[in-house]
UniProtKB/TrEMBL annotation:
Native source species: Nocardia mexicana
UniProt KW Transferase keyword: yes
Domain Tetrapyrrole methylase, residue spans: 4-221
GO molecular function, one term: precorrin-6A synthase (deacetylating) activity
Protein name (Swiss-Prot/TrEMBL): Precorrin-6A synthase (Deacetylating)
Listed NCBIfam families: CobF
Biological processes, Gene Ontology terms: cobalamin biosynthetic process; methylation
């Protein structure tokens, strides 16, 4: 493989795929997809639908089984656990790349720059030195942008910062005064651990997808509603993908 495109495809709505992304996809001979198992098969199906809608040339798809990792958020060596998972993912990509001729492509949910490990794995593959290729990154619409658009809000207050973090870090650090906090990768409903009656939440699940769900209001008034809705959606679909913004009023 001589060239790889890492292509952001948006937060779930096929209409969010940019012209630049479509042009890049049309140069690709082989697409690599890291599968998340049967429970998240829908994520693979959305990628397949995007390719079917936009490609005008033959292509192949190589699906790679995602290696399991310890998802304990209390592990004192959390970073080490994730680094090990990335290393095993990179080894699988290396094997797939080594047997590929032509141009490769990886479709990334949202944008490759925000809470996605694809670029780290690509760099690991190159550092191993077994396969050599050039790569180009195509940006996509993030879930942060999709959340703001669907709730019709600005992510930060006037002249104030917005802090992007994870559920794990939110539990540890809370919400700073005068700062809007965007939370991603929260499987635990960490907003319930943040003290205070002056917080407002804008929450969204499956943004851009047919099952998109939005809830907004004072955190203490709607947190139980969000937890219940998350539980129902997870039971219905087998997985949940959500994000939210917190701001003190």
């Amino acid at each position: 493989m001589q060239q790889l495109y890492v292509i952001g495809i948006g937060a779930g709505d096929p209409a969010q795929v940019t012209v630049q992304a479509i042009e890049a996809m049309r140069r690709v001979d082989v697409f690599f997809v890291i599968g998340k198992g049967d429970a998240k098969r829908e994520l693979v199906e959305v990628r397949t639908a995007i390719l079917t809608a936009h490609l005008d040339r033959p292509h192949r798809t190589v699906e790679i089984a995602d290696p399991p990792r310890d998802r304990s958020v209390t592990d004192p060596d959390y970073r080490g656990v994730v680094e090990d998972w990335h290393e095993r993912r990179a080894a699988l990509l290396e094997e797939a790349f080594a047997g590929t001729d032509g141009v490769g492509g990886i479709l990334v949910w949202g944008d490759p720059s925000l809470y996605d490990s694809t670029l780290r794995m690509v760099r690991r593959v190159l550092d191993r030195g077994r396969v050599r290729f050039d790569y180009e990154v195509v940006p996509g619409v993030t879930s942060a942008q999709a959340l703001a658009a669907r709730h019709r809000i600005v992510l930060h207050d006037i002249g104030e910062p917005v802090h992007i973090t994870t559920g794990r870090r939110l539990r540890e650090e809370g919400v700073a005064p005068g700062e809007s906090t965007l939370v991603m990768l929260d499987g635990e409903g960490s907003f319930t651990t943040v003290p205070g009656d002056d917080l407002h939440i804008w929450w969204g699940a499956y943004l851009g997808m047919p099952d998109e769900t939005l809830i907004e209001g004072p955190l203490r008034a709607v947190e139980d509603q969000i937890l219940q809705r998350r539980k129902e959606l997870r039971e219905q679909k087998g997985w949940i993908m959500d994000t939210y913004l917190l701001r003190r009023t």
